[in-house]
Amino acid sequence: MIASILRTLPDLRAATRPWQMSGARxxxxxxxxxLHDGHLSLVAEAKKHCDxxxxxxxxxxxxxxxxxxxxxxxxxxxxxxxxxxxxDIDAIxxxxxxxxxxxGFATTVSVAGLTDVMDGxxxxxxxxxxATVVTKxxxxxxxxxxFFGEKDFQQLQVVTRLARDLDIPITVHGCPTIRExxxxxxxxxxxxxxxxxxxxAPILFEEMERISEGLRAGHAFxxxxxxxxxxxxxxxxxxxxxLELRAADDLTLLDVPSRPARLFAAAWLAGVRLIDNIAV
Length: 280
Ligand code: PAF
Fold this sequence. Notes:
Blueprint: E1 4-6, H1 9-21, E2 26-31, H2 37-49, E3 52-57, H3 67-72, H4 77-84, E4 91-93, H5 97-100, H6 119-122, H7 126-141, E5 145-149, H8 153-165, E6 171-175, H9 195-200, H10 203-216, H11 221-235, E7 237-247, E8 261-269, E9 272-279
Parallel strand pairs: 1-4, 2-3, 2-5, 3-4, 5-6
Antiparallel strand pairs: 7-8, 8-9
């Protein structure tokens, strides 16, 4: 079945109302398009859990830190619709700006604490933009279940918390990161890498794996960290914004993985910002 493409909130509501009335489970997979296998794994997971599935495609201006980044973000709607064909989903919601932020829109959803670290520091305002649009997408779709990748682990924590804090009756599912064969975490931004940078990009994950093995072998995080930074710099990574060990639940900084922990990284390679995280 080819999913209908819905572009307005009234059309979305008309489609979802009968599903809601029948008590069906409605899954939403929020995306900004440029779909890759990581997104498609979320769609497959949504299909497993839900009676109806909606994929949303909206390049959300409020979560970008620069006009340039927003302008360069890949937009591939026709390809995206084609990639979704085999999943037999119910609808693709592609709202234009005013469907999400109508004139006079004045509300910001802001999650404290979890956003004080990592991308919350390096991308000021980013998580307010994410939290605001995700709240809108949750309420506009009336979904019972939402599917997010662990690739953006901090985002996953933020949206889980906002749904809980705002009593939005939705279950947030976190799904494992999907990687290219060479280990690079799939991301729409990978399309922006030059051929040369694409070859170097998996080194970020390799260094993270090396730290994880080192921790398992009992080495100190500080030593592993400085070796990884040296390797990354010599491979051409210019700005390592963070490479940190943190608790998986509340993102507290750790020296040793004394409780379920993850290693988080953000670094720039040839003008592209890459982020990744792994369980330790
Ligand atoms: O992860 C993304 O693509 C975006 O941050 C999201 C969740 C679709 C909100 O715009």
